[in-house]
Amino acid sequence: MKLARSVAAASAAALVAMGPGLAAASDGEWMKDRISGCEVWSVEPPTPEEGVSWSGSCPDGKASGSGVLVFWDGEGLHGRYVGELEGGKLSGEGRLYLRAEQGGFNEFIGRFEDGKPVGKGFLRTAGGARFMGELIDGIDHGKGVVVLPNGWVLKGEFKDGKGVGTIVVDYFAEDGERYVGQAENGKRHGFGILTAADEDFYAGQFVDGVPDGQGIYKGAGGERYAGDFAGGKRNGFGTSVDADGNVVQGRFINGEPDGMILVTEPDGTQTVTEWKAGGTQ
């Protein structure tokens, strides 16, 4: 019984969901409980191996009211629904379990209308990912928070397994890196805070995954920089302070001072010299 399919990932690492196909479709067919004769709507024509069992009431020959719906196919138990039906279709509050391709069962808790999940809901996949939020057009499109098994948290709008526009993420990478901020198309994009495993720190604008725009950098060894970035390097005007307290102010190209540079030593002594490719002329 194809009440649903395995679909979607939600963003960069994937929220495997239970996909479209929960809504009624014009090419679907009624399935009949072989014991009670009660009918339930299937969005696709069932195969001979597929069957359904309904435990609730059956006015006019259609499953209705509260009850338990169990459906199976040639591979065994395909899913189970505990909740409300109307006219043979999921309608009202309910809890739906569907077999996942990788084994186990995905779970959705929420409200259904005419066989389709609507409004606020909670989804937990067999792999341990969770989604909490507002469904826009079925389970494969919604706004909310995704929590992945590795602890990554993603917030925003998701459709067909991808973030729509800018989303907000909070993650720890296996190498110890942590990022909290905006992302787009699977890359850091917008404002964010990145802390490396060695405790290097950057807070500022990102473009296509690298620092680009205004930002602040603090190195694990005590070095600091505030100013312009482009392509992941210091490019533009900024102020750099080394571990000894020497301050360098001016223009930077590919991370190195360039042009007329003001240098202020820890004792307050200031000099203006011309630099090229990181060295004085």
UniProtKB/TrEMBL annotation:
It comes from the Bacteria. Pfam families: MORN. Residues 1-25 form the signal peptide. The keyword Cell inner membrane does not apply. Keywords: Repeat, Signal. The keyword Signal applies. InterPro entries: MORN. This is MORN repeat-containing protein.
